[in-house]
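Structure in, sequence out. Go:
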């Protein structure tokens, strides 16, 4: 997030923020369109005894992250993702770029 904190202006109003947000949403759209393959790959990995991936609840987390569980269309899912970006940014000024991925854990249906 240092990228967004190099001026005294509100970062959410900066061009850099809009570029960053656009890139994140584009990546999210690409991943969401391939969610079936991603879920299948994660199901295959469940047999590897990874502590972070060992139950159906972990698979439900993927479906929730991609807003599949609520039947959201692509725009609704992207709107939810954008709100996660905003909430994550507002929650802490000292966060780093990886805050986006940690914030996905807090998406609620």
């Amino acid at each position: 997030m240092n990228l967004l904190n190099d001026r005294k202006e509100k970062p959410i109003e900066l061009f850099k923020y809009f570029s960053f947000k656009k890139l994140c949403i584009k990546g999210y759209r690409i991943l969401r369109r391939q969610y079936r393959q991603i879920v299948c790959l994660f199901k295959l990995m469940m047999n590897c005894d990874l502590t972070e991936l060992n139950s159906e609840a972990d698979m439900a987390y993927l479906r929730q992250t991609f807003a599949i569980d609520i039947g959201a269309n692509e725009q609704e899912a992207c709107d939810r993702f954008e709100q996660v970006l905003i909430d994550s940014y507002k929650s802490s000024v000292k966060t780093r770029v990886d805050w986006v991925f940690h914030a996905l854990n807090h998406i609620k249906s």
